[in-house]
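Lecture 7, part B: from sequences to assemblies.

Below are the input chains for today's worked example.
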Amino acid sequence: MFEQLGLIGCGLMGGSFALALKRAGLVKRVVGYSKSPSTTDRARQMGVIDVEAPSALLAVAGADIVLLAVPVSATEASLKAIKHLVTPQMLIMDVGSTKADVVKAARSALGDKAGPFVPAHPITGREVAGVEHADADLYVGRQVILTPIERTLTAQIRQAEEVWKALGCRVTSMSPESHDEAFAAVSHLPHLLAFAFINGLAGQPQSDTFFSLAGPGFRDFSRIAGGDPKIWRDIFLSNRNEVLAQSELFRQALLQLEQLIRSGNTQGLEDLITLASETRTHWRMGGQRSKGH
Amino acid sequence: MFEQLGLIGCGLMGGSFALALKRAGLVKRVVGYSKSPSTTDRARQMGVIDVEAPSALLAVAGADIVLLAVPVSATEASLKAIKHLVTPQMLIMDVGSTKADVVKAARSALGDKAGPFVPAHPITGREVAGVEHADADLYVGRQVILTPIERTLTAQIRQAEEVWKALGCRVTSMSPESHDEAFAAVSHLPHLLAFAFINGLAGQPQSDTFFSLAGPGFRDFSRIAGGDPKIWRDIFLSNRNEVLAQSELFRQALLQLEQLIRSGNTQGLEDLITLASETRTHWRMGGQRSKGH
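Predicted structure of the full complex, as C-alpha cells:
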C-alpha cells in the first residue's frame, strides 16, 4: 500500500495506471503533473488524479511511488526535473516502449540516485490517446517487462513486481537490449509497416475507391496505423538500429515472395505462404509457438 | 426462388453460400460436388448439401443456379467440365477474389455460352478453410462486387443482385480490371506483407522469444497471415502484375520512412506517421474516407 502516487504525464497510460492503482486500493492519493495544464485539469475533473501539481518536481514531493508516463524522448528531462526529491525509499517506474534509451536517460539524469528506478514496459495501449480514454482495465491480463540495470535496488524490483501483479499483469524481466531487439521485431516493425502501407495507398490517385472497398482483413491489418504520431516517432528514433535491422530482414522476406510471384514459382510460393500461415496459426498470444514446425 | 443449387466446391465459401441460401428460403435442393469425395461426404452429413454429385457436370444437371467456389486457378477447368449443361436460363456465379483471370477463363471455357455467368466477389472470408467452418452468416453485411463482361445477360445480373441482397449483402459493379487493381491494393498486398512479416520473424534464431512477447497489435496485424496457402498462392499468381506494382509502391513508402529514421528527421517522420494515422482513423469500412484531410 502506497501513500501517494506522483504521476508525471496524465495521458492514456498514466491516467489508466492511476485509476487501476486506486481501484486496487493500492494508493491513497494521486498528485499529477502534465506538460499541458488543461490535461492536468481534466484529469482532476475526471477523478484520475486528486491534486494538480504545477511541476514534475512538486508531483514527486511526498510521493512513495512515482510513474513517468511521458513520451520516451521526454524521459531524461523528466528524471532531471525530479532528481532533487528522489529518495532511496521510493519506487519510480516508467511505461516506455523502448528501454535501452530509457536506461541511458536514467543513468545520465539520476547517476548514483538511479537505484529506485525500475524501467517497465506494460504491453498494452489503445489507438486513441489522452486522459479521456483512461481506463482502469487497460493493464488487466497484460504482460509487463521489467528491465532493471546493475544499479537497480532489489527491494524496488520486488515492489514493482507486486504492483503490476496486483493490477492483473504477468511480469517478466529481461535486459534492456534484449527487450528492444524483441519489440523491434514484434511491435515496432509491424507499426512501421502499417504506416507505410497506409501511406502507399493514400498516395495513389484512386485511393478513395481503394479505401471504399477495404474489408475486415484491411481493418485488422491496419488498425495499428492509427497509433499516436509523437509516440511512434519517438519509438522509431530511440530504437532506430533495431527497427532498421528488422525492416531490412522484412524487405528480404518480401522480395523473396515477390520473386516467386514474378517467376510464377507455384510450389515455392505455396511453401513460403504455408510457413507463414502455420507459424501464425500456431502462435498464441503470450505463449510459445507449438513445437514441431 | 430457385429449384436447385449446383454447388461446385463444398468448402468454406461454397458451403456457407448453400447454408445461407437455404436459410433464406431461396433454394429447395442443393447438389454438391467437391474434388475430394470426403469433403462432399462431410458436406452432406452436415446438411450443407442434400445430394452428392460424382462430377461437376452432374452437379449442374437440373440446376437453375450454379455456384463455382473453387480456387481461382480451377475456374477454367470447372467451367469446361460443366459447359455441356449450361443453359441461357441458369444463373452461374463464382466467388473468386480476382476477376480478370476469371473472366478470361470464362471466355475461354464457355465462349458464346458465357451469357449466364456473372463473375462475383463477396468480400468475406475466415482464417480457417473447409466445410466444417461453413456458416450461414458468412455473407451477412458484406459487400459483393459483380464484374459483368460485354456478353453477360442483363437478366442474370439482376438475379445475381437479388440473390446477394437477399443474403444481406451490399452489391456494387465494376470492371474486372478496376476490381483487380483495387483489391491488389487493399487485400492482396496486406496479405503479402503479413506473410512476409511472419516469415521474416520466423527466420531469426530468437523467433521463439519474439513470438512469446507479441501482444494485441501483433495479433491483429498478423491475423490475415493465417490465410489458406493454396488460395493465396493462386490470388498472387493470377493478379501478379497488380500485386507486384502495389508491393513496389509499398516498398517506396517503407524506404521513405526508413530514411527519415536513419537520418533522425524528427519532423519529417512525425509528418508521415500523422498522414498514416489520420488516414486510418478517418477510414470507415465500406464507406468513404472523411473529407478535409
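Note for the exam: Chain B touches chain A through 94 residues (CB under 8 Å). Keep this in mind when comparing with the next example.
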